[in-house]
Design goal:
840 residues, alpha+beta, three-stranded antiparallel β-sheet, 6% strand, extended, disordered N terminus
Amino acid sequence: MKSGILFILFLSCMTTLAPHHGMAQNTNGTIALADVSENPDQLKIQLNTSKNDTNKVKILIKLATLEWLSSKDKPQLDSCLNFARESMALSQQLHYTYGFTESALVLCKVYLHREDINSATYVLQLTSGEERVRLLLLMAEHYIFMDASPDDKNVNQAEKYLTPARQLADQIHSEKWLIESQIATGKFYFAKGDLAKGKSYFFEVIRHFQAKHDFEQEAHWWSDLGNYLPGMNSNYAEEMQYFQHSIDLYLSLGNKAEAAYVMGDMAGTALYVRDLDRAEQLYLRKIALLKAAHKEKFYTTYTRLTDIYLAKGNLEKALEYALLTLKNMELLKQNALLPDAYASLGDIYRQLNEIDESCKYYSLCLGHIDRNLDNLKLFFILRCYVQNRIQQGKAAGALSYIQEFISRHPAEFVSSNEMVADAMALCYQALGKRALAAEYFQQVIRRDNELQVADKKTMQGDFNIGGPEAYYDVANFYANGKQFGRSGFYASKALSFQHVTPVQEMNLRQLKASADSASGNYRSAYRNHLRSDALRDSINRDQQMKRISFLKIQFETAQKEKNIALLQKEDVIQRKELEQSAQTKLFSIIGIVAMILVAGVLFSLYRLKNLKNRQLEAQQSIINAKNVSLEQLVLDKELLVKEIHHRVKNNLQTVISLLTSQMDTVSNKQVTSALQESLHRVQAMAMIHQKLYNTTNYSRVGMSSYLSELVDYLKEAYHPGNQVRIDLVVEPISLDLALAVPIGLIVNEALSNTLKYAFPNGAAGKVKISLLEKTEDSFELQIADNGVGLVAETSHSATPGFGLPLIGGLAEEIGGQFSISSGLGTIVTILFASYSATRD
């Protein structure tokens, strides 16, 4: 809450910059964050070297999004908040709407995740238009998807955000956000348990797009309806029907990728209701569609197929798809997801009794614990790894590994602590330290009792050892120590649980038989022994049948493939024979006809060729005569243009001479100064015509050499001496005459003014003239000095007010933007379009 208050104070200092005062906050996004797959380390390097511009905003948003996606299930989201706040502040300074709206979305998500409703509401108040609707719906869905009963007050809280969202979307005539509001309302009624009313809102949206013949959007909302309809077995067929509508539409549009993604949702629904065969077929079809759409991301689908084959007991297939998962993750550099792939491979190799391989992948998994592994799963894998090491005869190493591991990564939950205690007990048992083992086994019992009292659902989780498995370890420990009374007690306790697997029951019955025999209860011992043997036979028979079935399927598949290949080969041979026979007859007939036709065609071509040759010779004579005439015209034109530039240059030189003569006869300093400035302007134009006269390109002026000569001329005219350094930075470009003349006059005017007034009394200084490409479409001309500044220059000017309007007029003539700034010196900037520029 403290961080939220600080953020509110931070934003309250910036309300004059808030985008809702100056920018229309439209958005094309949804209330979900954009998918980002970039490397966060590389983004941070880019951030450190970037300027405060819109690109930096985009980098900050990407980093905030990545932090959210990687840690939204953890309490720490400080980095995400920091990146989002910096992005929002910079977006406000730049008046960058996209940056502001995306930053607001991330901030609102984080505050809602932390249940900091006040801070989330404050962010909402900064927004307007479509962005406000967006955040209203985000806050509504926060309450809609809370884990609560349909009549819970939190669910009803959503309505106070849904109503203004619909009203505002209607007021601003935003079809997109009216649709999103309708869908959010449908989800709201689903959460309340009113399925009929919820579906009515979805159907209204679907009918809207059907009427518009917008099949892409219709397909999208059929898919959403299938995803958000509450997942009860009674709705399974209905959900699958909605998904199929969506898939059919996408396929009719040729959008195989979207059809594949919907098929994945459909398979997930089948998996949820344990329809494993259908889920398997759908996931395989999804992969085929993704490959047809030239996509590369398959690892999520491979993971689901691994789970399905594990559930079916087909370890070979499970291993195949687990390895494909790992390979695809490595190909796409999805390093954050590798721990789950390693854990899955460790489990499969353990079930295949390949302990060394299992240890290898468990070790890789535990070495990446900083990435997306929840605490319970982490310690479940740790216990499996320890059991493997004990089986390898490395109990001492396993014990050291546990102690070092928990010192760095303490267990957070009761279940986690139970698994650590069990792993420690197994290590001490293997090392022969029975007293320590007994102490840790008693901790296992205490933790298990806590779990049963606190939450019986926890006993049924995927990642714990609660119940039968924990008590079996304890019972087995006492049986090995010949303490059959205790062993029998804990074995009976384990058998009392509801969820006991056949393997667990087989082992527990054997322990119970040993305990009953030791106490003289032979009848009970016999019954337990018979039950254990029956379970063993059943398990072995099931495993053998699965193996036989698997081999049979492999054999039948191979045989079918072989038969198909043989039939295909025979078919190809027969087709070739028939084709060859038909071709022989056809070629004979065609050959005779072709010979007759060829003879006729050759004769016709011969006559036609002679005629064409005569026509071409006549045309060539005409073309040659015209070419000679055109070449002479081009030469005459070039001489004429060259002569024009020469005459213009001579005329301008005459004007320069007249101005020089006039200056010699005038004693008034202001008039002399005005005449000198006019002389420089005429000289700037004369230099252009001189350059055009001396080149073969009579329409374009090379700006680098021209500006260099102009600067040298002005330096000679004003004699600034060595105290004033003039740097010239010009890109190698050529401009046409209509653009070069104004540019030359602007440089003449600005540099003359600088050399006359910027450095009074022989002061030292620096002038920089640059003509550089600013963007792909524009160039920037800049004359900057570090002299006394514009105000001081104007106060000494002999002809105040004429130079700047002239520069402004010239800039307007070339369609440029003129700006001047003065502080520590003067900077004249002209930004003009580069459509007429060419690279030298």
